[in-house]
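User: quick one, fold this
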Amino acid sequence: MNEKSKCGKVIEFFACCTSIWLLFVLVYIILRDHWIDSQVSPIKTWQEIIGLLIAVVVVVTLLAKFMKFVVENGETGTRILLLSYFALLVIVQSIIIISWDVPFTWKDINVTHSIASRLFDGGGFNNTETLYMARYQNNCGAVLLYSVFYKICSLFVSNPGIKCMMFFSTLFMDLGIYFIIATSGMIFGKKGKVIATFVSFFFSAFYFYAVLPYTDVFAFFCVATLVYIFYRYSSWKSQRAKILSILAFGLVMGVGSFVKGSVLILLLGVIVFSLLDTQVRRHIAKKVPFFVIAGIAVMGIVVAINVGGRTYVNHKMQILNESLEDQEFPVTHWFMLGGSKNGTYSIQDFNKTAHIKGKCQK
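Assistant:
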């Protein structure tokens, strides 16, 4: 069996799995909406289910035709498959955002975007916003990042709102998925790229979390991009391209860790992988001075972005060091939240930390 036939078999297998998954999800939606939620008699829903099955048969048939085209056109077909997937994803996400009319009740989203929309103008921040940023210095990155997005949107829209940020958020989510698929192609070849595309499709339902414009989505994009840059480094031939990729790695790591501190864990992962992988270790051993300088440069970029960005936000909001010393929540607060019963936000844990005076005491 040649490479083309193997790739075709893989695509056909995942096409069948995808069709079955679609059928299951659609039938579940019908059953949930009519049998469980509204408790309508099952007899009244058979016409809907029959119509649904017919629609699924049509979709599966069209999907099979499309997959046959993909198999017959090799690499070109794979690219068309990937582009089609992203086009569908972006269209569905855009429809969700445009039709979104439910106000966000999540305090973090409301406060950070309220501050971000006015950060560059300076002033006008109320006590609640100032106290929030003094406590949650970890959100300085999100505030500064989204203030840049608001500034960009204001060039085209007179009064950019939260929906503009929702579009930016979904864009970064989709770019993150692209880099994951591209990285899988570098590691596992064409078949890996196809499999990664189908696996991404299976988890598409979770990507609509991207419409919540907060730190997690951008952190996902940064992690995916960093892994891509790491694997892409070896394919660059010129020294200039390698240096630029290292600087890009430092820039993404700096911005990513500023927005979401846990992104720094990936840096530790890269170091451990480089020490354990024989091929990478030998490559580093040949150019020890170069990689020492590269490591210092990356750490310098990370520190500069984090310290400079936080200083800028605090200066614009007129948050004094004395206020930070008294109000800022330490990292241990999030360890406490993670160790609670449900592992997430707890008003009891919040009150416990907030009522203690002084960062060291907290």
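User: anything notable?
Assistant: The two ends are 65 Å apart (CA to CA).
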